[in-house]
Amino acid sequence: MTLSNSRLSYTDCFEVFDRALEDPLGIRIPCQSLDIATHYRMRMHQARAIDRADNARTYEPGHPMHARSPYDELRVMLRQHGAQHYIYLVKNKTPTAIEPLSELEQLNGPNTGNLLEHLDARSVGGDRADNQDRRPEGVVERLVQIPLITRR
Asked: How many separate domains does the chain show?
C-alpha cells in the first residue's frame, strides 16, 4: 500500500500528534482491529517524516529544527488489552538514573564471565509476541476517541 506524500493527507495525524504533546504522558487511540491500528501507525510515521522534510526545507542546517519534528519526542506503539487494540503515543522520558555497566560489581565479578553473555541470558521481552501491557506501574493515560476510517 502506497502512502501519500502530501501534508494535507495527514491533517488528522497532526491533530493527534498535537493532542499527545499537550498531555503530560501522551494519549492512546482505540482501534477496531490490528490491521486498522497498523495502517494508522504507518500514516503517523509518514506524517512525521513529512514534517521533518518540511522543516529541512524551512530551517537552515545548524538550526535545532532543521530536518527534525516536534513530534520526534513521541513514540507510536501498538498494544492490545484483551480484544481491544490501541495506538499509544507516549512521550519519551529521560531516565532519572544512568549506571555505567563497567561500574556494576554484580556484572563484573569473577564469576560472571562475558558481560554480553550475562546480559543476553537475562534479556526481557523477546519478540513481544504476547504484546501485553508493559507500562510502568502508576502510568495513567487519557482515552482519546478519534474516528478511524475502516476498510470495507
From this structure: 1
Q: Count of alpha carbons within 13 Å of 61, Cβ hemisphere only?
A: 0
Range of the domain at 30: 7-93+131-143
Global pTM? Answer: 0.65
Structure confidence by residue, pLDDT tens digits, 38-55: 999 999 999 999 999 999
DSSP per-residue codes, 58-115: HS-TTSTTTT--GGGGEEEEEEEETTEEEEEEEE----S----GGG-HHHHSTT---H
The x, y and z cell numbers of residue 17, run together, are 500528534
Give the per-residue pLDDT at 127.
46
Question: What pLDDT is attached to residue 136?
Answer: 47
